[in-house]
Design brief:
By secondary structure, the chain is α/β, with parallel strands linked by helices. 31% of the residues lie in helices and 23% in strands. It has helices at 7-10, 14-35, 45-48, 51-54, 57-63, 80-87, 99-110, 130-133, 155-165, 179-183, 236-245; strands spanning 70-74, 91-96, 121-124, 139-145, 166-177, 184-186, 196-198, 209-212, 228-231, 249-256, 268-269, 275-276, 287-293. This is Class I SAM-dependent methyltransferase.
Length: 297
């Protein structure tokens, strides 16, 4: 496996790094909006760190026992999910590109003065530099997703990073918005409702997509400063192929019609507390979950 995760296979080219620097500035600018938002609810730890808010029941089933396991959460943003995973007994580390996000995550972690969350640490680094940034640390679990992969230009290099972080026998758990979800866009009509149509690419191939948005996905005021961001499309086949190419073995792949929050106004809340499209809409996947493992030998 070691020959599959060399430095050259993990490092993005300079052009991609420059584009990721645009995202770093954007996430630094988003962070004060997010920390004050009702969406994240950081004013109330019980709300912000409620496991049901961030994780579907099947995620805990897929992850299995976390107590005593070393876990790294890549692209952790404010670190809420990182702390929830620590609350399940994992020795958790969060890593994020944004210095402002990491500072906010550390503040939230510092409020957890006792219990399993108290030892959670956070590291600022580009995800492609995670192996170097974390030094000799290797992990039983790499967790990531829910808006992570779209900010990565190269999934082959990302998969090599994941493989380099895992101990033999360790697993990646990826719970990510489905590329089909990212392809949908609402189209207002003269009739009631806003039907969803395919408006964006599902597959990669057109390169970086630049966006300029004053508001983020949370409530709150407009972003001040760096409003531009860059995204890349990745189909589900690309994700699986990148991971198997890095030597990981896919153990399960789920497709889910529910989201942890309402992406569009038409979505309805389910008994699980999550959100799906209304009954009249086709059943399509909005999120997927994948577990992959680094072979022992």
């Amino acid at each position: 496996m070691d020959d599959l995760v060399t430095d050259d296979k993990r490092r993005p080219d300079p052009a991609d790094r420059r584009l990721m620097a645009v995202n770093e500035a954007n996430w630094d600018a988003r962070t004060p909006v997010h920390t004050a938002s009702d969406f994240y609810g950081l004013a109330d730890d019980a709300q912000a760190l409620d496991p049901a808010r961030w994780f579907a029941p099947y995620e805990w089933e897929d992850l299995g026992e976390l107590a005593g396991r070393d876990l790294v959460h890549l692209q952790c943003h404010l670190g809420t999910e990182t702390l929830v995973l620590a609350g399940k007994g994992a020795r958790a580390t969060g890593l994020d590109l944004s210095g402002a996000s990491v500072a906010a995550a550390r503040e939230l972690a510092a409020r957890q003065e006792s219990g399993p969350m108290a030892g959670t640490r956070y590291v600022q680094a580009n995800v492609y530099d995670a192996v170097e940034a974390l030094g000799a640390a290797r992990f039983d679990v790499v967790y990531t997703g829910k808006g992570a992969l779209c900010y990565l230009p190269d999934l082959d290099r990302w998969a090599a990073v994941v493989a380099g972080l895992l101990r033999p026998g360790g697993m990646l758990y990826l719970a990510e918005f489905h590329p089909l979800l990212n392809s949908f866009g609402p189209t207002p009509t003269a009739e009631a409702g806003t039907p969803l149509v395919l408006r964006h690419d599902y597959l990669a191939g057109r390169g970086a997509i630049r966006r300029d948005a004053t508001y983020t996905y949370t409530d709150g005021p407009p972003v001040e400063g760096a409003t531009e961001s860059v995204e890349w499309m990745h189909g589900l086949g690309e994700v699986v192929t990148a991971l198997t190419g890095a030597g990981l073995v896919i153990e399960l792949l789920r497709e889910d019609e529910e989201l942890p929050f309402p992406r569009w106004p038409e979505m309805v809340r389910t008994e699980s507390g999550r959100w799906r499209l209304p009954d009249a809409a086709p059943r399509v996947p909005l999120l997927f979950a994948l577990r992959a493992r680094r072979p022992v030998a």
